[in-house]
Amino acid sequence: MVLLGPPGVGKGTQAALIEAAIDACHLSTGDLFRAAAASHVPPSPAMQAALAGIARGELASDGMVIALLRERVHCLTCPHGFLLDGFPRTAPQATVLEALLDEASVALDGAVYLQAPDAVIIERLSGRRVCRTCRRSHHLDHHPPCRSGCCDACGGQLYQRDDDVPAAIAVRLAHYARTTPALLAFYQQRGLLRTVDATGTPHDVFARAETTIGWRLGVQPPVTPARHPAQDA
Ligand code: ADP
Q1: CA torsion sign, 11 to 14 to 19 to 24?
Q2: Residues belonging to the active site
Q3: Cα distance between the two ends of the chain
């Protein structure tokens, strides 16, 4: 599946819940960029420019993101499926993904579009604090850490992402509004778009996603039994 929706709508949170339910491979392009920013290996000049743009709320170029995805193309054939979070974000990215999936003979189960009003998004992003170690998100009001500044899950240091400040949030929402209609139309035309109301708690949203996707995420999807060579004769 691919997860679509505005910045901060909870794609990462839902991806983690779905991953826990069905053991699918979760690939977040935003996390790949943040890992590059935190890496001890100095980023290439192109990556350095992309990271500076990302901190201001801009999108990375299609070429750069597609190259990152290609490096992890094996995730698309993981045995329990994959969840792409943050990719595709533009129609050209969706076209490349479709070609990669065709090459791998993999069909998408759906493009899950998480939807919430701008006011909810802005409030979620402004209060978000992320763990430097395990990347888990907290929220200053809705999910405050037990110990100020420390991750509940691993004790790591919580920080505010550069792009979660008001000026960058405004830029991200503007890019989102510009690029998303074509992306939604792409999946709508293929009968794959599944819209989910993303307001409420993470578990409310997960329950709605389960219903909308049409199969119980709490249950392992059926595994096709391996064929015996004699069956093919
Ligand atoms: P968000 O919380 O806004 O959904 P992510 O954590 O997915 O953000 O990504 C952080 C930033 O990384 C994005 O705002 C964007 O600048 C960049 N980025 C991630 N994925 C893509 C993509 N597919 N195309 C272009 N830029 C991307």
Answers
A1: negative
A2: 11, 89, 128, 161, 172
A3: 34
Query: Using a 6 Å cutoff on CB, does residue 14 contact ligand 1?
Result: no
Residue 223 pLDDT: 45
- Ligand 1 centre and the CA of 11: distance in Å? 11
| Model pTM score | 0.86
The pLDDT of residue 230: 44
Lowest mean pLDDT among 18-22, 114-118, 145-149, 158-162: 18-22
The pLDDT tens digits for 163-220 are 999 999 999 999 999 999 999 999 999 999 999 999 999 999 999 998 888 665 554 4
Distant-in-sequence, close-in-space partners of 36: CB < 8 Å, separation ≥ 6: 43, 47, 51
Which of 3, 33, 61 has most ligand 1 atoms within 8 Å of CB, for mutation? 33
Residue, of 143 and 88, whose pLDDT is higher: 88
- In sequence order, what are the beta bridge partners of 46? none
Phi and psi angles of residue 95, each rounded to the nearest 5 degrees, phi first: -65, -40
